[in-house]
Specification:
By secondary structure, the protein is mainly α. The chain has 13 helices and two strands. It has helices at about 5-20, 30-40, 45-55, 60-80, 100, 105-125, 130-160, 165-190, 195-220, 225, 235, 240-265, 275-285, and strands at about 90-95, 95. Strands 1-2 form a two-stranded antiparallel sheet. The longest helix is centred in the middle third of the chain and has 29 residues, at about 130-160. It binds 3-methylbut-3-enyl trihydrogen diphosphate (IPE) (2 copies) and magnesium ion (3 copies). One magnesium ion binds near residues 214 and 218.
Length: about 290
């Protein structure tokens, strides 16, 4: 990963952590600890996208950090629930035991629920203008619902009599993973009351490319590097780009999407270089 990108991701994680640390503790100690645990240790890509999109429009870190923390809360909630025994049944996340393994299932369900509420609370208790709060909140509510709709399709596909078509897989991935990434990419424009069109197109392509890369990592990746169990998708009968197109086909589709994401940023010229680097990183990553 380019040094500049690595440093910017670290700065974004710190900005998000500062917002989270400033919050009062949740009144139930185990759930509070589980929420904080679930927020730690990820790449912080979604919060980073919010901050970079905001920066492109002249909104700097402290002001965009509430929106960045909000999406990391929704993402963390989605992972805590994704790992539950009734979903993907995973024991390892970000190199550590999953929340339901470290605590128990009830704590994991409640921590996920609470993280979702906190996300909306963070935006609504920020100093953003009311109109901006409405735009961000409404779009986040839709994105979080889309994530759940995608998760539902993903789980249903495991036991479906017929395999999903490639178009259905792309739709599923745009929902389960794409929606939160797309919100992250366009949030900066919403914060600045600018046209979200180019960042939206970037985020739409990036989101699907990101999940294709995740599916490739499930086949080619390494548990020590990714921090989560690998080679689970085929075993579970998941419908992925890899199950349809094979590894080479999936990589080619991901590269096409990255080119689309980069092209969407044309109007920002050199200012968007770090977002182009991000798109390339998303499919080259090994974690
Ligand atoms: C993992 O997302 C789940 C998917 C949507 C594929 P990330 O790869 O961004 O996970 P963390 O936040 O870095 O752990
Ligand atoms: C998860 O997709 C997407 C979410 C909405 C959480 P996966 O189930 O493939 O994510 P990992 O591989 O467990 O991180
Ligand atoms: Mg899953
Ligand atoms: Mg999973
Ligand atoms: Mg996966």
């Amino acid at each position: 990963m380019p040094d500049r990108l690595q440093a910017a991701l670290a700065a974004a994680r710190e900005a998000v952590a500062n917002v989270i640390d400033a919050r009062p503790a949740f009144s139930n100690a185990p759930v509070d600890a589980a929420m904080r645990y679930a927020l730690e240790g990820g790449k912080g890509l979604r919060g980073f996208l919010v901050l970079q999109g905001a920066k492109l429009h002249g909104v700097e870190y402290p002001d965009a950090a509430h929106a960045a923390a909000a999406i990391e809360c929704i993402h963390a909630y989605s992972l805590v629930h994704d790992d539950l025994p009734c979903m993907d049944d995973d024991d390892l996340r970000r190199g550590r035991p999953t929340v339901h393994r470290k605590w128990d299932e009830a704590t994991a369900v409640l921590a996920g629920d609470a993280l979702q509420s906190v996300a909306f609370e963070l935006i609504l208790s920020s100093n953003y203008e009311d109109g901006v709060k409405v735009d961000l909140t409404k779009a986040l509510a839709v994105a979080a619902r889309h994530m759940v709709e995608g998760q539902a399709l993903d789980i249903a596909a495991e036991s479906a009599a017929e395999a999903l078509t490639l178009d259905q897989v792309e739709n599923l991935q745009a929902l389960k993973t794409g929606a939160l990434i797309r919100w992250s990419a366009r949030a900066g424009a919403l914060l600045a009351k600018a046209d979200p069109g180019p960042l939206d197109a970037y985020g739409r392509a990036l989101g699907v490319a990101f999940q294709i890369a995740d599916d490739i990592l499930d086949v080619e990746g390494d548990e020590a590097q990714t921090g989560k169990r690998v080679r689970k998708d085929a075993e579970a009968g998941k419908a992925t780009f890899v199950s349809h197109l094979g590894l080479d086909g999936a990589k080619a589709r991901a590269a096409e999407l990255v080119a689309e994401a980069e092209a969407a940023l044309e109007s920002y010229a050199a200012d968007a270089e770090i977002l182009r680097e991000t798109a390339r990183f998303v499919i080259e990553r090994d974690l």
